[in-house]
Specification:
This protein is an all-alpha fold and 225 residues long. It has 11 helices and no strands. The longest helix is centred in the C-terminal third of the chain and has 23 residues, at 145-167. The chain is globular, with a radius of gyration of 17 Å.
Length: 225
């Protein structure tokens, strides 16, 4: 059951005001918009719904399910192993740096606000990915797993929609309509992540990988990825 305290903490973790730097990143959207491949709310929706169903977002939440269970068993070695696995699955140096930077910022904030077990204070052998750090924060606040996954994906989608609002640009109302339209995809991804087996952990992220790798050579950039 989600208590009032856990709900308020979740709202804090998913707030756009959370000082972990998410507003700095577009995860390849800036490249695709500059290339004229994403030009409208409809094409943003197509891109994000694909990422939720087949891409990196689905992979992150599937790993979060495993991390949440490992923390419940105090199996901290497994937590670090899944974090390393997810780091290895990152498609480009930009995306890896983004996740490590945001994950480090989030875990440092968690350490200030909550009692962080010594085994989880730093990632080994790599810094924490932001999704893993979010999962750690959720377990410490007794936020139920499914609710934590919904909150994480909502925050991720909101960040990228806000990037598209600035880059295309889209109107603020169009951005909110898009966020509402993606709710069923978010719910579907959570259910898919709860059921997927280790042997079926996979994603289809060629477009994201190419967009991310091409981003560093853009002539003009507003975002870091």
């Amino acid at each position: 059951m989600l208590t009032d305290s856990a709900l308020l903490t979740l709202l804090q973790w998913v707030s756009p005001a959370l000082p972990i730097g998410g507003f700095n990143y577009s995860e390849g959207l800036e490249t695709l918009i500059a290339q004229g491949k994403i030009t409208s709310a409809a094409t943003v929706q197509d891109w994000l719904s694909f990422e939720l169903t087949f891409g990196s977002a689905h992979l992150e939440t599937a790993v979060m399910v495993r991390v949440y269970g490992a923390i419940a068993k105090a199996d901290f070695d497994a937590v670090h192993q899944w974090n390393a696995w997810l780091s290895a699955a990152r498609e480009s140096a930009e995306l890896r740096a983004q996740n490590w930077q945001m994950g480090t910022a989030l875990i440092n904030l968690v350490a200030v606000l909550d009692r962080l077990p010594p085994e989880l204070q730093t990632g080994q052998p790599y810094p924490w990915n932001v999704s893993v750090a979010f999962c750690i924060a959720a377990t410490l606040a007794d936020i139920p797993l499914e609710t934590a996954l919904l909150g994480y994906l909502h925050s991720w989608v909101t960040t990228l929609i806000n990037a598209a609002v600035k880059l295309i640009p889209l109107g603020q109302t169009a951005g909110q309509v898009l966020l509402r339209q993606l709710q069923p995809h978010i719910q579907q991804t959570v259910q898919q992540s709860l059921k997927v087996t280790d042997d079926n952990l996979e994603s289809s992220t060629l477009g994201l990988a190419l967009a991310s790798m091409q981003h560093e050579t853009l002539y003009c950039r507003l975002f870091r990825s």
